[in-house]
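Risk register update: the risk of archive-format incompatibility is retired. Evidence:
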Amino acid sequence: MKPVKVPAFELFLHEMIPLAKAMGVGVEVSDDRALTLTAPKEQNKNSLNTAFGGSLVSIATLAGYGVVWELMRTEKKSPEEKTSWHIVVKESRAAYRRPVIGDLRAICERPAQAAISEFKEALARYGKAKLKLRARVVEDGQTAVDVHAAFVVSR
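Archived output:
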């Protein structure tokens, strides 16, 4: 059996954000288009045996956080430069459209290249920048929860 490589962001989540580990959050796909996270319903259900609303908004927020984390992780720096940065959620808004019956699946599409360039320019100039993202919790091809959030990165 071939060993499975656990994505760096998933390791980070489980080590640094205990809620993500408790929820059982894992990285399903991380490609040029989007980051997709999953979590089992069993650890995230409510008294109605559907996914708990707090878990739904959490996994969507974590997907957005992951897009920013991966963007910052790939930022080029010189070998002698030790850059540290912090990511926080500045604001978010969630719209619950339908219950989630099965496992949780959140998708956050990566921003357009123009938005990334503007973000990185502001970060270089001011040491702080904001990136607005949309993450969705989907089930059976339908959006169950829509989350719009602004993440701020500072050095």
